[in-house]
């Protein structure tokens, strides 16, 4: 099996590339960083000559003489709840179209996100056809919805939610940044259920999508079952050895404050995101759960349960 992985110098792409190598596949890795700056396990494989790696910023033309591959797992993208719309569109939408065009004969697996679902209401065991958001709270959600279209009908689209694991650049840092003294500040009541996705489960889904009998369709991808937010936060605190308790603020109080804060930062043209955004508030403040029946039944997806064991080393 020959596979190209974009975004391989990043979090999810690096794990997908290593998982493919472990399965004995021939992996061609592409990433925004130069080869000398590719870290972790993938960096070791690149320097050992096991994985050919080429720097490719997908906002620009594809490198010449691309390898012939059976499948592409497209993990490259810009993730975040702040930034100019043009950047998100350039990377996530136009970049997806560039990669799709660069490998015209290969199966295309596109890494999307559950952020394409309606951010203004709870997501309760949502199925893939329920993606009917009319508006989004930021450019990221818009760009990922448009990127799914850029991937085309003849693609496999995967929608994970809140990806975590060793090297996690988003979820765990955001949780830890919310600790103030002996309190971990969160929004909601703590009883809301959330679907999380370990990066290893995500890699499993990517490889199944790249090599299985199904060659198109949209699939939610999460851990085996949803968890209660308060349980997850307390588990993280224990694993990290942090003496703090989750404390919850009402969403109805915090969301307007986040909207005002965003407006001020936009008016000031701040390149830095505010500490509080509507996207961050809505991400875990209400139920965000996904139905993964389609992935189980059609892809053969068998995810492990949510686990933060070993998070002290992340």
What does this structure look like?
This protein has 314 residues and is of the alpha/beta class. The protein has one domain: Rossmann fold. The chain contains ten helices and 16 strands. It has helices spanning 11-22, 40-47, 85-102, 139-151, 171-177, 199-211, 229-240, 251-267, 278-285, 293-299, and strands at 2-6, 26-31, 53-55, 71-74, 107-111, 123-126, 156-160, 163-164, 179-180, 183-187, 193-194, 197-198, 217-221, 227-228, 245-249, 288-290. The strands form five sheets. It has a seven-stranded parallel sheet with strand order 3-2-1-4-5-7-13, with helices on both faces. A three-stranded mixed sheet has the order 9-10-15. A two-stranded parallel sheet has the order 6-16. The chain is globular and about 55 Å long. The two termini are 31 Å apart. 47% of the residues are buried. The model has no long low-confidence stretch (mean pLDDT 95).
Summarize the entry for a quick read.
The chain is α/β, with parallel strands linked by helices.
- Give the number of DSSP strands: 16
Q: Which spans of ≥5 residues are poorly predicted at pLDDT below 50? A: none
What is the radius of gyration? 19 Å
Under CATH, the topology is which?
Rossmann fold
> How many helices does DSSP assign?
10
Question: What is the H/E order?
Answer: EHEHEEHEEHEEHEEEEHEEHEHHEH
Spell out the CATH superfamily.
NAD(P)-binding Rossmann-like Domain
Name the beta content range: 15-25%
């Amino acid at each position: 099996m020959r596979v190209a992985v974009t975004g391989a110098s990043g979090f999810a792409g690096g794990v997908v590339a290593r998982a493919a190598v472990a399965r004995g596949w021939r992996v061609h890795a592409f990433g925004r960083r130069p080869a000398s700056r590719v870290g972790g396990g993938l960096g070791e494989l690149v320097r050992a000559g096991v994985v050919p790696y080429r720097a490719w910023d997908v906002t620009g033309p594809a490198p010449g003489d691309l390898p012939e591959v059976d499948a592409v797992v497209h993990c490259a993208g810009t993730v975040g709840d702040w930034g100019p719309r043009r950047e998100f569109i350039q990377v996530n939408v136009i970049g997806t179209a560039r990669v799709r065009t660069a490998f015209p004969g290969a199966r295309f697996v596109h890494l999307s996100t559950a952020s394409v679902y309606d951010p203004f209401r709870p997501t309760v065991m949502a199925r893939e056809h329920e993606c009917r958001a009319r508006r989004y709270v930021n450019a990221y959600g818009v760009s990922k919805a448009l990127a799914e279209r850029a991937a085309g009908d003849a693609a496999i689209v995967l929608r994970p939610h809140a990806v975590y694991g060793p090297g996690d650049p988003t979820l765990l840092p955001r949780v830890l940044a919310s600790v103030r003294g002996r309190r971990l500040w969160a929004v909601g009541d703590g009883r809301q259920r959330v679907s999380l996705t370990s990066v290893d489960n995500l890699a499993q889904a990517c490889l199944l999508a790249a090599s299985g009998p199904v060659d198109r369709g949209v699939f939610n991808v999460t851990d085996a079952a949803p968890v209660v937010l308060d349980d997850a936060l307390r588990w993280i605190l224990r694993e990290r050895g942090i003496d703090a308790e989750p404390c919850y603020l009402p969403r109805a109080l915090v969301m307007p404050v986040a909207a005002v804060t965003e407006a001020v930062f936009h008016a000031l043209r701040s390149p830095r995101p505010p500490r509080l955004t509507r996207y961050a508030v809505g991400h875990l403040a209400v139920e965000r759960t996904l139905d993964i029946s389609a992935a189980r039944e059609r892809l053969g997806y068998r995810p492990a349960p949510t686990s933060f064991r070993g998070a002290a080393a992340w």
